[in-house]
Amino acid sequence: MYSRKLITLDEFTIQELRNFPQATGELSGLLRSIGLAGKRINAEVNRAGLVDILGAAGAENVQGEEVQKLDDFANKTLLDLLNHSLYCAAACSEENENVILFDDPISNSSKYVVVMDPLDGSSNIDVNVSIGTVFGVFKRISPLGTPAVMEDFLQQGKLLVAAGYILYGSSTMLVYATRRGVNGFTLDPSVGEFCLSHPNIQCPTDGKYYSVNYGGYKTFGKGVQQYLDACEERGTQPKEGYKLRYTGSMVADIHRTLLKGGIFMYPASADAPNGKLRLVYECIPFSFIMRIAGGVATNGEVDLLEVKPTGLHERTPYFLGSSEMMAELKQSMQVGDSIA
Ligand code: P6P
Questions:
Q1: What is the mean pLDDT of the segment spanning 211-228?
Q2: Ligand 1 atom with least separation from CA of 277
Q3: How far apart are CA 48 and CA 62, in angstroms?
Q4: pLDDT tier at 58, thresholds 50, 70, 90
Q5: CATH no. for residue 297?
């Protein structure tokens, strides 16, 4: 077997098929469609500064947030490719209040549905900070041959078949997890292909980076404050080397946490009692990726992958990262909250 230097995403997913003959190839096909969408979105993100695509599209999404034109483009690009793939029955998107049913015979016979945030971090678009696409793939629970239903999207994260993200940063990366592992692919613009660059990603069990919007410190619970105080204290001791890193773009912040170790959080606060981040198409996919990579993700009380959503756009307090740091946070929250 000759040694191969460069493996593209398509070759990798096909190789996975060869290694697992019982696989039907549908998930691989779906991941390739998402990869193609990522390339098209990347091209627009890279052009954003040049083409009159910046600035708010004028509409508002279900979160009441001004929609940037790139959000629209990313959403339409993903929905178009998923709709015309052979493997997806429907999608749930941050940009759409309701589920988007691809109600045609082929789509209705497809066994997967996709949850997605087409372009997260859009407030960073105009200042050229990394942004990203987040997605999760569930096997539908509704009968094949019929349109997908809401329940197909309100499943616990532990039932995900795959999850991933595309990070439009200094380079463009697609990272996805299945139960077989987490693998990262970097876009090679010279050939227009995602190439395997980070095989079998494992989240370090410990880390030095803590990632939170400190602006909310005064409104966080006492346990969270106690943990952050400890991080800050370690930051003053060179040998501990704790550092605060926060970009305001969860895809970038969690990507760093996954690769370098650390902890990322968006806690509940006085003005956001359920936190800000969305459970179904942001926190559940990232929690699956983190778990497969050996990390931990919670809502501050339970394993996030055990949480059953009750609505497409519900929010949740969110904590994830290196297992040892998450254990320390848990300890602080148990002690700190009892102080409350
Ligand atoms: P804040 C981006 O809008 C986002 O949804 C996440 O990507 C990011 O982690 C968070 O919101 C930033 O929120 O309140 O710190 O600006």
A1: 96
A2: 5
A3: 24
A4: low
A5: 3.40.190.80
Residue 219: its pLDDT value, please? Answer: 94
123 lines ligand 1 (CB under 6 A): yes
Query: Is residue 276 in contact with ligand 1, taking CB distance under 6 Å?
Result: yes
131 and 150 inside one domain:
yes
Lowest mean pLDDT among 59-68, 218-227, 266-275: 59-68
CA distance 180 to 56: 40
> Strand 263-266 and strand 131-139: pairing?
unpaired
Mutate to test the pocket of ligand 1, among 213, 245, 246, 274 (most ligand atoms within 8 A of CB): 213
Residues 136 and 160 sit within 8 Å (Cβ to Cβ):
yes
> Which two three-digit tokens encode residue 160?
């995900």
Integer distance in angstroms from the first to the last C-alpha of the chain?
A: 62
Confidence at residue 339, expressed as pLDDT on a 0 to 100 scale: 47
Residue of the nearest CA to atom 10 in ligand 1?
Answer: 248
Q: Is the CB of 49 under 6 A from ligand 1?
A: no
* Ligand 1 contact via 267 beta carbon (within 6 Å): no
- Which residue is listed with tokens 């909310």? 216
114 lies in some domain: yes
Say if ligand 1 is within 6 A of residue 120 CB: yes
Cα angle 92, 93, 97; round to 5: 85
What domain range includes position 236? 209-339
Tokens of 172: 């463009």
Same domain, 134 and 176: yes
3-state class of 13 per DSSP?
helix
Mean pLDDT of the 269-283 span: 94
At residue 99's C-alpha, the angle toward residues 265 and 290, to 5°, is: 30
Measure the CA angle with vertex 236, ends 233 and 237; round to 5°. 100
Q: Are 290 and 181 in contact (CB under 8 A)?
A: no
Q: Whose CA is nearest to atom 12 of ligand 1?
A: 248
Distance 21 CA to ligand 1 centre (A): 41
What single-letter DSSP state applies at residue 8?
B
